[in-house]
Amino acid sequence: MIKAIHINTIILFWGLISVVSCGKDDVSPSSEGTENIQESQTETVVTISNGDQREYIVYTPSTYDEKNEHPLVFQLHGSSGNGEKFYTISGWNALAEQYNFIAVYPTSYIYDLRLNGCGNDLVTKWNNYNLPKEVCPTETLRDDTAFFNQILDELINAYSIDESRIYMAGFSNGSGMVSRLAVELSDRITAVGGLAGFFPEDTIYAPKRIRPLHLMLGTTDEKIAYRTIFQDTIPLDFQQLFTDPTLRGITQTYIKTFDLDPNYSVTDSTEYTLTATFEGNSGEPDHLMKFTIWKDLGHFFPNPDDRDGAADVLWKFFERY
Asked: InterPro entries, alphabetically (predicted)?
């Protein structure tokens, strides 16, 4: 169990770190890559953001060298999750060891939600663009963009960070949050990717600059499929997928917000995935969005040991930029 620490009181511990699963609903456990982990550092930082006590976990690989600058990857959890859970299940630590980057796992604020009646449903949530309609009237929304700005300042002060290689990944509510950060924090981050969480449909936002994105969705995601005309299983076919008003509307939000050509090409597909690439109207090589459909994937962050998981796919996308 990872112990919390107060900022300016740094407790470091060293030892063998392995990626294990704490629940099959979230991920298939994987041991791939863990055999090479020799000595790594995990630090849990408690900081104050806008008067609130907030927390994030920093995983520094054994290959870390303060003389060299290192990429930085954030993984944002979904509703009711926390940073420790995704530190444990996501597979990012093994990738950090392999590719020599720092992985960060923040925890969101806790809100009272309307879903089960106000006063009965306290849940961790990121303040993405969907949250205002989900919280009870008495709640005050926290400025999570300011929180991430603060985390970045703290990490850059404490570690040797390559500020041209800062990546944001997220799952579910956290995926919706990284989309918001692609708008509001795009002057500081390099690329974003998320699974099972999106912008609201048929809206438009104004990013500070346009960054590459990678969106992902499982065909059997029960949290999203029920909102579509397909009900149970989203088709592994983009022509069919975009006949649904909700999925088409969500995609249109990204197309308009990030100035993308609505015509797409099917690229980078595998036995388990189908990917559409939307090129940016500027023609610049980093002006694009990938949208991947995962065959038979429900609402969880996959980390199987027999093929690439979500973290693997996102890192392959990130490392291009």
From this structure: AB_hydrolase_fold (IPR029058), Esterase_phb (IPR010126), FaeB/C/D (IPR043595)
- Per-residue pLDDT at 39: 67
| Cα(288)–Cα(11) distance, integer angstroms | 41
To the nearest whole number, what is the mean pLDDT of the chain? 89
Question: How would residue 277 be classed by pLDDT, with cut points 50, 70 and 90?
Answer: very high
User: Which residues share a beta bridge with 294?
Assistant: 218, 273
Q: Which residues contact 213 (CB under 8 A, 6 or more apart)?
A: 179, 182, 191, 192, 193, 254, 258, 288, 289, 290
Distances (CA, A) of 246 to 200, 237, 251: 9, 16, 9
Nearest to 46 by CA among 59, 60, 57: 57
Q: Taking the complete model, does pTM exceed 0.90, yes or no? A: no
Q: Please give the single-letter amino acid code of residue 160.
A: S
Tell whether the model's pLDDT for residue 157 goes beyond 90: yes
- The whole-angstrom separation of Cα 1 and Cα 14 is 14
Compute CA distances 278 → 171, 181, 266, 287, whole Å.
Answer: 21, 20, 9, 9
| Eight-class DSSP state of 243 | T
The amino acid at 20 = V
Residue 103 tokens, joined? 């992985």
Domain boundaries, the chain: 197-298
Find where tokens 């949208």 sit.
291
d(CA 222, CA 204): 26
Rounded to whole angstroms, the Cα distance separating 111 from 131 reads 10
Bridge partners of 118, per DSSP, are none
